[in-house]
């Protein structure tokens, strides 16, 4: 796992390329959908972090002009993120929105804590970063994307990422301006969908840019990441990733966020141990 891609980010700790040994495990073919998360919320009465806080981050282009003016710019270095009152998984663009027309889209505005609670409810867990990367690679060795090294093989879009000039112009050439259904595009050779683009996916590991660089047993055999940290790993990139800004839809790419943070481009998929019987 890992990479030394010339298009990569050294500061993110993508390298070194290393051999990691994993026990057998199961991982969902798709990210958790709005429909699936709704079943969890209805069954448990669970309230997400975004719902408790009363707001979440929404990409400005998904809001109408009046709502853009009303929302404060909460991230100085990322002016495209707006803190929108009422934004949550049920209302991805704020109180005027809902998910009735996108039950098969990935649930968003879920924090790491929310994702972990859902996974526990259905008898699963979040994948480790190593499990996520092995699954994303689909059996390919050191390929840049889950399907190979060409972003658009034979001119075909294989993932939901930004098309145009970020953050002002998205041509939607791949068919989507925001999220896409969880089974959009072709699956990789392991039968997994959207391991690149669409939404970032939470992993179990605490974030570190150096822990995995040390050649110790715990970093090479079923690695779980450091014992503690300030943020959790997210993988896969999202519909906002673009080569000119966030070229992190590559398989080796990685970044992080706080356990209670939520945005309109972060979701998750679940994993599980494979029983010996």
Please describe the structure with a list of short key phrases separated by commas or semicolons:
single chain, 277 residues, alpha+beta, paralog of FGE (formylglycine-generating enzyme), four-stranded mixed β-sheet, two-stranded antiparallel sheet, 6 helices, 10 strands, 16% helix, globular
Describe this structure in words.
It is globular, with a radius of gyration of 18 Å. The mean pLDDT is 96. With 277 residues, it is an alpha+beta fold. The protein has six helices and ten strands; from the N terminus they run E-H-H-E-H-E-H-H-E-E-E-H-E-E-E-E. It has one domain (10-46, 103-272): paralog of FGE (formylglycine-generating enzyme). The strands form four sheets. A four-stranded mixed β-sheet has the order 8-7-6-9. It has a two-stranded antiparallel ribbon with strand order 1-10. Strands 2-3 form a two-stranded antiparallel sheet.
> Mind summarizing the main beta sheet?
4 strands, mixed
- At CATH level 2, the architecture is Alpha-Beta Complex
Give the total of beta strands.
10
Number of domains: 1
- How far apart, in Å, are the first and last alpha carbons? 28 Å
Provide the spatial order of strands within the biggest beta sheet.
8-7-6-9
User: For the CA atoms, what is the radius of gyration?
Assistant: 18 Å
Can you identify the CATH superfamily?
paralog of FGE (formylglycine-generating enzyme)
Strand content: 5-15%
- Give the uncertain stretches in residue-range form: none
| CATH fold title | paralog of FGE (formylglycine-generating enzyme)
Approximate shape: globular
Mean pLDDT: 96
